[in-house]
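Homework help board

Subject: predicted structure for assignment chain

Our instructor gave us this sequence and asked us to write out the predicted structure in token form, then describe one feature. I got the tokens but I'm not sure how to describe them. Can anyone check?
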Amino acid sequence: MHAETGQTPIGRFEAGGPPRQASPDRLREAFRWSVTRRVTRTATVPLEGNAYAVDPALAGRRVELRYDPEDLSRIEVFLDGKPAGAATPFITRRHVHRAVPQAARPDAAPTGIDYLGLVAAAHEEEAGTGAKIDFTRLGKLPGSDHNQQQEQEREEER
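My token output:
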């Protein structure tokens, strides 16, 4: 029982009627981030490595940018607390604010193929155990004219 109201906390809460739920627009507005930026002479504003085009009448003025940190493609511009249009993405390098934690990428499913083992086995079969790998030949197709010419040149050198 509360000393001043004479009601229990739950009684006071229920006396106000059914609880009201905030509208989705109001919730979205409550969780947007905002920053202040100066508009450049070319009517752009920088944010998180991106450049956004704004109304040219705002050049040289300080504006407030309000945005969802998980979607940097939609930025609203405010001048002195009043809406001043939208900022259009001009140069986009980031789509999400860097402070937003990113989900961990799932590990790739194993294929069951040991590519390095296959290369090593093919090399040992061709050159013999303990021979060094000639990295200049790795990208070449066996039996091609270019490879045969290189092999002849190597043999002549030996």
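Reply (TA_rk): Your tokens look well-formed. For the description, you could write something like this. The chain has a mean pLDDT of 85. That's the kind of observation they're looking for.
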